[in-house]
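pinned: reference chain
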Amino acid sequence: MATARMDFYSGMLFYSKTLSGHDLIIDAEPSFGGRDAGPRPKELLLYSLMGCTGMDVVSLLRKMRVIENMESFRMEVEYEQSQEHPKVYTKIHLKYIFKFNGEPPREQVEKAVNLSQEKYCGVSAMLRKAVPEFSHEIVYE
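pinned: its C-alpha cells
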C-alpha cells in the first residue's frame, strides 16, 4: 500500500510533496481563513480529470499518427454543484476541443476519446461513479 502525505502549515494552507516529487500547496480564500496561496481541493478534481483524459487522448492520437496535423487541443469542463453541504459536483460535462490543419480525423479522435473515457482514465472512472450527470462531447473548431 502506498502512502501520500499532506502537512498543515497555518491559516488554511496545506503543503505536500507529491508522490512524483512535486510541491503542492492548497489553500482557501480569505473569507474562510486562508490566504489564497493555492487552488482549492475540490477544483483540483476538475483539473485532474482534464489532465488524465487529455494525456490519454494525446498519447492515443500520437500512436494513431494523426497528432502531427493537430493545430490545437484544449478541454473545458462545465459543472454544477449542490447548494447544501457537503457541496458536491452534481453535473460534469467535459468538452474536448480540437483544431486540425485540414479535415479532422474524426474517427480516430472519437476512438481516442472513447478509449480514454471507457478504458484508461481512472479519474473519469471514479467521477462517473460519484457524479449523477457525467458526460462529454467532441468539438471541432
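why pinned: The two ends are 44 Å apart (CA to CA). The chain has a mean pLDDT of 97.
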